[in-house]
Amino acid sequence: MKRAGRPAEQLTVDELVRYGPLGHAEMLVGENLARPVSRVALVSDLDQVRRCGPGTAVVLTGGLALGAWAVESALRLAWERSAACLVCPAVTGLTQASAQLARRMRLPVFVVTGDTAACALELAAAIASPEAARARLAARCAELFAERSNVRGIVGVINSEVPGVLVALVAPDGHVLAGQASADRAEHRIRVDVPGPDGRRWAELVAAVAGPPSPTWGETVRLILRLARAPLAASVARERVDAVHDAERGRVALIALFAAARAAAEPAGQDSPGNGGRSMPEEVLGWRVEGRHVAVFLRSDTTLDSVTASPGVVSAWQEAVQELPLVPWDRGWASWWTGDDITVEQVVGTLRRNLARMRSPIPLSGGVGRVAAGAEGLRESLSQAVLAAGVTVRDGHGTVRSFDELGYRVLLASLSQPELADSARVVLADLLSAPDGPVLVTTLAALLDCSGSTSQAAAQLGVHRNTVLGRVERIRARGVDLDRPDQRLALHLACYALLPELS
Amino acid sequence: MTARSITVADVPALLAGAEFFSTSAAGEGIEFAGVWLEDILAHTGPVELVAADDLDPDTPCAAVGAMGSTVAMAELPPSGDEPVVLARSLAGRFGAPLGAVMPLNAASVNALHPVAAAAVLGLPLIDCDGMGRVFPLIHQTTYELAGVSLSPLAVVSAGHDSLLLDTGSARAEQIARSMAQAAGGWLLCGMYPARVARLREAAIHGSVSRVLEVGRVLCEHASGDDRSGHGTARHERLLRELTAATGAAVLGGGRVVEIGPSVRQAGTVYPGNPVGMVVHDHDSGRLIRLEAHNELVLALSDGALAAAVPDLLCLLDRSTLRMTGPERLTAGDQVDVLCVPAAPVWHSVAGLALGGPGAFGFPLRHPREEGR
């Protein structure tokens, strides 16, 4: 074992503060804490300070509490003998000037209320067995790790129990998953990789320590971080299982909800079991089904594996929008806002803000349906949102469009079916074979969108009108006739079928 | 040593010098005594200042000095006849009239009382004293160190109550102090009656001349006679001249960063309250902590003992070029800390036991003791 061969190094003043008896003392001056402490001297007379060797923790008895001058004299003598630190009783005359002197001497000074002799005894015990003091801290942390069930709790144990250390759990992309974000920016850091449930590196525990840590203190911090790894991996696995489980439950519940709503809308008695499942999702999952809803649908590029990304997307959503569920649905994720005065514009704005805030593992864009009432209304609104979201995929992460805003164009988004796209590639083969084929197809789509207006198409594409004119020439040269009404719809559809893969 | 005299014209210098040797704390509010002394000298004429060696060794003499509060004395000033009462009491015990008087200590208000006494009694003033500074107790003297008995102690109060005390030194001090409280806050004392021959070993010689010399240096600078025209240069020249006149060392100088009551546990025998202050030395950045108990008792420079009683610690106010003390200072004032070595007899083992840091309740060795 790595630690077994290491000699028992002396505790530093720093360590005595962090998990030793000095933790309870008031630190008047915290300079130069990295000094090792070799022994403790309880002095009741200034002359005794003269006999202290280097590295001594000098503890003044109450008998020497004769005022600031006595503490300052002891401070000076301790400094001359390279003492590690000075511990003095609470003398009322100790002021800023005494602290300033200690800072000049770079000697740590601690003030103990109560009996300094007891403090000296505790110091002596800690110094006699440094390993024991370190082990006690590690054991205390391990005990608390076992009691915490989530990532935040486990990281919180280190932040509260290991004084002077700030810890953050940082994802590979730099996102702080838990703990103190400032830890990742500190000058002196100790890092330990944290494996995920699959055993691969999942995140990193970063501990910020004040000043360069002594070798022993660094080792102690590293040990505690390592102790936290297994509980972290376990809690992450649990959270993922929970997320997948919840998402699947949500999907089933939504299907049941829509089925029940459809059954209720149709003539009575036709599908009675639907009524039995009706109340399940609302009560168990806490959903609001009655009232006015606006559904939203999030989706990503079809080439990405949305099933694998689902737990990540759901947890990122829950981080940003805590009060609403996100249910895997179709090839994306569904949710809805409910309220008596809710409007589509509000939901578009809110969703756009939340998408910008969300730290999703994959790019997401959203569609928003119309306002509708009840479970059946929600189903319709969701269908509209799915169609609208189909259009947004081309525009990249963070885009949000509403069904109303897009109008009939939402239909075109459904065209990126593989069969239709294959046919389109054959039909537009001549155009695509040009060196700038994809650009010509995009331009053709824009022209058709704008009823042949080159200036409007130029504005839509963000290029000069002359550029569009040049492209039109090249398009015509490839045998495409824009002016034939019987061909125009087919041409338009072919362009839209190809657009997703061209973008 | 040649005889010389103290006239009305010498009083301002005597006052300024008295303030210097009061070690910064006890010199507060003694200006009233200057006016009072000028008045007496205007009536009686100059006082003859003589060296002990110039007098007949058999001449009976006694030390004169006041004890108690200078504030009380300013409110209830002496009438001027008090020395006559003292001289009568002591002459009765001597069996012969006094032939000369000497100061108990030529510092603070006690630098002026012996001059007034000599003037009123028509006697010469011996150019010596028993402290060379201010000590809080009347038996903290070189007379005591040399074995001259403090008693019989003749005292007279503002109300002309008089008493002749025959007891040991420490008890005489205690009893007289109680009486001072009851009799108006101060007492004028005639003590250490002896033949002049005893003074050869027992006194610090030339004390009064030294007070006058230092006083003249201070008066020249305080008169506003701005010869160099530049504040910093004037201040440096004054420091130079003071150190030359007294053999003082400058421990440091700068801003007062802290001042207030000190919580140290002082011996209860001393009147007054302990005060602590810290001066941030401008040049070295050192922190000079001063502990006072009426007088400045010790100085720690960065925690190391730099100076202590019986050596004198004096504070010079840089803005007024006058001697100052904790009662007149606030945080932010600029001062210089001077240390004037005490008379050699004070550095003996017996001298340090009587007037060293230990006598003031500080369990410290005087810097001179370190080598022993």
Automatic annotation (TrEMBL), chain A:
Residues 284-389 form the CdaR GGDEF-like domain. Residues 440-496 form the PucR C-terminal helix-turn-helix domain. It comes from Acrocarpospora macrocephala. This is PucR family transcriptional regulator. InterPro entries: CdaR-like_regulators (IPR051448), CdaR_GGDEF (IPR041522), PucR_C-HTH_dom (IPR025736), PucR_C-HTH_sf (IPR042070). The lineage of its organism: Bacteria, Bacillati, Actinomycetota, Actinomycetes, Streptosporangiales. It comes from the Bacteria. Belongs to the CdaR family.
Automatic annotation (TrEMBL), chain B:
Residues 171-364 form the S-Me-THD-like C-terminal domain. Residues 10-166 form the S-Me-THD N-terminal domain. InterPro entries: S-Me-THD-like_C, S-Me-THD_C_sf, S-Me-THD_N, S-Me-THD_N_sf. It comes from the Bacteria. This is DUF917 domain-containing protein. It comes from Acrocarpospora macrocephala. The lineage of its organism: Bacteria, Bacillati, Actinomycetota, Actinomycetes, Streptosporangiales.
